[in-house]
Known about the structure:
mainly alpha; elongated; PhaG_MnhG_YufB
Amino acid sequence: MDAVVIVLLLVGCAFVVVGTLGLLRFPDLPTRLHAVAKADNLGLGFIVAALIVDAFARGEDGMSIAGVTAKLLLIWVLALLGTAGNSHLLAGSERFHDGGAR
């Protein structure tokens, strides 16, 4: 089980690093937002999956596995919604930058 957790964590971290490189590399705001939003959400999904697998493997005592899974999935869903909302607001404000629509 530890190998599965390690692979999921490495894949998740790789997506986060690629998203950060896209943020630094791409020329304009919409492409930067796209790179960060997509890659980071997917990376966070893999990291959450690794934590869920780890919780199942360890059999947490203090909290039920269903509770841990529900909380981790809630964190991921809130991050997905927050990223989508923030990207939309930033892209909309960039569109009207310099006094009007481009």
